[in-house]
């Protein structure tokens, strides 16, 4: 379980001091940004009552905040910036995330944006036709099971935010990794795999917008590099892990 903790600091700032308060935190935030113990931060203002603010800071752990940041060279300057507003604090506590979490439908999953299960089924069908006809990759997939393309489609479906059918029928990340152990995949083979799946994505009609394709390519870069690592002679199987779920990353879908 993650050790990250979320600190909430609730302020009540008179409206005639709001400009100076925001200016002070704009200056103080540079110390948070420079702190290795700080994951992220955000200062929000209440819409219903402009005098109320909430500062949310995610720390790598409560100890890292109290023993790391507060005892660091950054803290005195941070404290000097916010000291005039300490008396306006109504709450300052750390909170641990619970298992109740998730995402709404405002931003579609990569799975939904791609066109759902049918899109990934088309992708793997086209892709493995190319693989078996390729002089560099065909030897790696010699004796390919008839259901292999279907299993990879289930894997990609789950990775990109669709139903967890791969986990339910095949296993987690460790099961997929085990498929590559001892295969001795080379960098040229990895690069060819990467190129062919991008060609297959074009032919299968997957979205071509830059946001989707950058996220798609980010995953296949990560996944193929892991495959090369775990196919090596000295690789050790990883501990059992869930199937990774990929997101849009830095660029969510553009909807003009």
UniProtKB/TrEMBL annotation:
GO MF term set: heme binding; metal ion binding; monooxygenase activity; oxygen binding
A Pfam match: Bac_globin
InterPro entries xref list: ABM_dom (IPR007138), Dimeric_a/b-barrel (IPR011008), Globin-like_sf (IPR009050), Globin/Proto (IPR012292), Hemoglobin_trunc (IPR001486)
Binding positions for heme per the UniProt entry: 175
Residue ranges of domain ABM in the record: 5-95
Keywords from the UniProt entry: Heme, Iron, Metal-binding, Monooxygenase, Oxidoreductase, Transport
Name of the protein in its database record: Antibiotic biosynthesis monooxygenase
Organism whose genome encodes this protein: Streptomyces griseorubiginosus
Lineage: Bacteria, Bacillati, Actinomycetota, Actinomycetes, Kitasatosporales
Gene: yjbI
């Amino acid at each position: 379980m993650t050790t990250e903790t979320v600190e909430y600091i609730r302020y009540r700032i008179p409206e005639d001091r709001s400009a100076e308060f925001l200016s002070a935190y704009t200056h103080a935030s540079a110390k948070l940004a420079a702190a290795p113990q700080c994951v992220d931060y955000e200062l929000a203002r209440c819409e219903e009552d402009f005098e109320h603010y909430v500062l949310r800071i995610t720390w790598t752990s409560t100890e890292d905040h109290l023993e790391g940041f507060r005892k660091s060279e950054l803290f005195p300057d941070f404290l000097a910036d916010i000291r005039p507003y300490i008396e306006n604090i109504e709450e300052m506590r750390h909170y641990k995330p619970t298992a109740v979490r998730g995402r709404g439908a405002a931003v579609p999953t990569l799975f939904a944006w791609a066109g759902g299960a049918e899109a990934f089924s088309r992708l793997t069908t086209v892709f493995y036709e190319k693989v078996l006809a390729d002089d560099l990759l065909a030897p790696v997939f010699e004796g390919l099971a008839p259901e292999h393309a279907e299993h990879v489609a289930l894997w990609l479906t789950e990775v990109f935010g669709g139903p967890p059918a791969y986990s339910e029928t095949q296993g987690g990340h460790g099961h997929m990794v085990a498929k590559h152990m001892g295969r001795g995949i080379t960098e040229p083979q990895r690069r060819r795999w990467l190129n062919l799946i991008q060609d297959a994505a074009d032919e299968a009609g997957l979205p071509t917008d830059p946001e989707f394709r950058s996220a798609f390519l980010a995953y296949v870069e990560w996944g193929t590099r892991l495959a090369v690592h775990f196919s090596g002679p000295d690789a050790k199987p990883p501990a059992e892990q869930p199937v990774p779920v990929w997101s849009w990353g830095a660029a969510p879908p553009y909807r003009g």
